[in-house]
Amino acid sequence: MKSRTRLWLSIGIPVLLIIIVVGAFLWQQHAVSSSVQTPQHPIVTPESQCATLGTSTPQQLTSMNLALDWTPNTNHTGIYVALAQNWYRAEGIDLHLLPYSASVTPDVLVSTGKADVGVGFTEGIVADAAVGQPVVSIAAIIQHNTSALVTLAGSGLTRPSDLDGKTYGGFGSPYESAVMGLVIQKDGGKGQFRNITLSVDAMQALESHRIDFVWVYQGWEVIQAQRQGVKLNIFPITSYGIPDYYTPNLITSPTEIKQKPELLRKFMLATACGYEYARTHPQQAAQMLLSSPEVPAGTFPDPGLVLASQAYLSPRYADPGRKWGLQDAAAWQVRNRPLHSHPEPQRRVCPGGRGDASLRLRVTGLSTCRAIAIG
Q1: 214: closest CA among 230, 246, 229?
Q2: Tens digit of pLDDT for each residue in 305-314?
Q3: CB 372 within 8 A of CB 364
Q4: What is the domain-level CATH number for residue 367?
């Protein structure tokens, strides 16, 4: 449930992420005050369609690979619900889950065609485009950013500005330093800290005092710590200058959208029904995850954590009155503000965006931009 190790080739990605994060915040402020309406692009999943899924299975099934971003967890519950209910098979899909691997990211598997779809992150989608490895966000798994920096309650590090000069335990992605630095600076610090890439579980490293702070999800690691009696100081990143972006996301490639639009439409229908069910039936959905034959034995030593995490996440999959998976252009359209002496051109990352600086890909219920376009 953490940010994952990625293989980056460009040393400019951290600067790009700083620009994008600050730019996104400014754009969101502009969008709120603007009278111009921003188009929405729904994934249409009428309840009647979900109710009729599973009544029959097509004789011919098409194989489809989905790359997971981590070990199975409650970010993935809707997928496991759809598998348990045979909704993918009802749509003619034989879905195979590719387990997480530290040696290759879902983004790489998707962009190279080894996976049809995957679970990714907004930060990674932006950075992928910057190094010529574009992937496309086709759904927001969670509507709001639930990640936070945490320290041990007894550490004396009670606010982000206290983290100057301390040790951050990361996962090897360049955007981590950019985000951590901005959070610290927003609280009045300098944003200077030591960043080490961990080879062990981040929370274990924190509890053993190998590191001083770490970036986690409130819906998993924070709940896990509470259940284990570990007290934390919690700093939600959206409370410290970081815009509230979608994360995690379902991703695919521009090639997949072009070549297999009908397959993606069927996949999205079954998946959306799975997450809609998980929204309204958290306990039953959690049990489907716990009992899934697709989950390796020993994945959930504490079943209560899954139930508690699901209770936290189910109402956060989508806002009240809003269908799961929706992505608004305003949340992705970014007008950069230069943070250094060299002017930066405008960049946009936008599902269903408009204008010469974006490429719009509209496919039967899926609307998104392919990548960052510099105009």
Answers
A1: 230
A2: 999 999 999 9
A3: no
A4: 3.40.190.10
pTM for the whole structure = 0.79
By CB atoms closer than 10 A (0-12, 13-18, 19+), residue 110 is buried
Contact yes or no for 211/167 (Cβ under 8 A): yes
**Both tokens assigned to 43:** 């994934």
The C-alpha atoms of residue 142 and residue 305 are separated, in whole angstroms, by 19
90 with 190, same domain: the answer is: no
Question: How far apart (Å, rounded) are the C-alpha atoms in residues 61 and 167?
Answer: 50
Closest CA to 245 of 364, 120, 355, 159: 120
* pLDDT-above-70 percentage for the chain: 75
Which token pair is 336? Answer: 């950069």
- The domain of 17 spans 13-144+250-374
Q: Is 348 helix (H, G, I), strand (E, B) or coil?
A: strand
The number of residues making up the chain comes to 375
DSSP H helices in 53-173: 77-84, 87-90, 106-111, 122-130
Separation CA 186–CA 242 (nearest Å): 9
pLDDT at 1: 52
Please tell me whether residues 256 and 110 are part of one structural domain. yes
**Dihedral of the alpha carbons of 55, 316, 206, 20, in degrees to the nearest 10:** 110
